[in-house]
Write a structure and sequence with these properties.
nine-stranded mixed sheet; Dihydrofolate Reductase, subunit A; alpha/beta; binds NADP nicotinamide-adenine-dinucleotide phosphate; 232 residues
């Protein structure tokens, strides 16, 4: 059997309430973390070739987090990277609001979708559109899709949620590291999104993690984990 095609080094970055929610029950934008967490998020975005988030997240925020800090922009330039990573949204239906601020931001944009979902979009809105072959959508063949990104020069990827997309990539064992910021509030609500939604994993086969580092800034805890390989 041939070795699986290489995929980008993928790092999940999320902020979570102490009771494990990444937004409240209204499923709007999560704006509960501190300025220290936003700076941390911008650093993670500045470190990668591409950023991936779900359509639900784009609908909630309407924007993408771009690199703005001069030091981070200079770092990217020194590393031979373009000023901004490619900001990619996963939306099988392609039903996104073309009036969203996202489409006016001076950033390169990508869309990962189906043939149907691609119909309403052009190269003005998305510089790159990946159309998943129908045969690879039940379930989504993320290793195949991510291998296409890798071939196009996206070697490092920041995965910014939401919980539906995160569950998809974890199902395929395509997440290598996780940064989770624990924020000092309690959101509650059974329908509020969590870092990993989807159907869930049975404990016996759940992804396992190794803590790489932790630090606190005031009342927030910044955790950094490596995802262990299935047999690790
Ligand atoms: N705290 C944080 O760090 C953080 C970070 C990111 C997001 N969030 C929060 O997470 C929430 C969004 O998460 P989310 O899980 O709703 O969306 P999501 O993971 O951002 O996007 C999910 C996408 O999955 C697609 N999809 C395919 N099959 C689906 C199915 N059976 N059910 C649902 N979606 C399906 C949908 O595509 P279509 O476009 O085709 O519908 C949808 O756009 C927001 O409240 C946001 O604020 C929090």
């Amino acid at each position: 059997m041939s070795a699986p095609a290489p995929i980008p080094d993928t790092t999940l970055v999320l902020a979570m309430s102490l009771d494990g929610k990444i937004a409240d029950v209204q499923r709007g934008a999560a704006r509960f973390s501190s300025s220290a967490d936003l700076a941390h998020l911008e650093q993670r975005v500045a470190a990668v070739d591409g950023v991936l988030f779900g359509g639900g997240t784009l609908r909630a925020y309407g924007t993408a987090l771009s690199v703005r800090h001069p030091h981070l922009l200079a770092q990217r330039q020194q590393g031979g990277k373009p000023p901004q990573p490619l900001q990619m949204v996963w939306s099988p239906s392609g039903q996104l609001d073309p009036q969203a601020q996202f489409f006016r931001q001076p950033i390169p944009r990508g869309l990962i979708t189906t043939a149907m979902g691609a119909r309403n979009w052009d190269s003005e809105q998305f510089q790159r559109i990946w159309v998943m072959p129908e045969s690879r959508t039940h379930p989504w063949d993320w290793p195949w899709l991510l291998a296409q990104l890798q071939q196009e020069g996206i070697h490092t990827l920041a995965l910014l949620g939401g919980g539906t997309l995160t569950a998809e990539l974890l199902r395929c064992r395509c997440v290598h590291e996780i940064y989770l910021t624990l924020c000092p509030l309690l959101l509650g609500g059974v329908t509020a999104p969590t870092p990993v939604d989807g159907p869930g994993f049975l404990a016996a086969v759940a992804p396992r993690l190794k803590l790489l580092s932790h630090r606190t800034v005031e009342d927030e805890v910044f955790l950094h984990y490596r995802v262990l390989p299935p047999d690790g």
